[in-house]
Amino acid sequence: MKLTGKQKRFLRANANHLRPIFSVGKNGLNEVWLNEVIQAVNKRELVKISIQQSADVDVDDVKQFVEDNSEIQVVQTIGKTVLLFNQSNNPAHRDISNGVFNL
Description:
Elements: H1 5-15, E1 22-24, H2 31-44, E2 46-51, H3 59-69, E3 73-78, E4 81-85, H4 95-101
Parallel strand pairs: 1-2
Antiparallel strand pairs: 2-4, 3-4
Helix pairs in contact: 1-4
């Protein structure tokens, strides 16, 4: 599923008030971390991740790892923050994706 520019703007507007709920530190990226992110995105649909200064990875590494190993899409990267989106499997949690796909 490829997002249009209008859909990305909608998601960025909805994520404006969000705080990062995950971070990448010196332990780097691994499957356990990714599984936790997938569960959070499945529940919330829109999640921010921050990359700590001590991390051995940068924004591009996180983006590549998440997109290659899951269905989650990276909507935006700003500095050391990554915005992730994926439609929830549970219809009760699809508030944001209903707005995205109605555009």
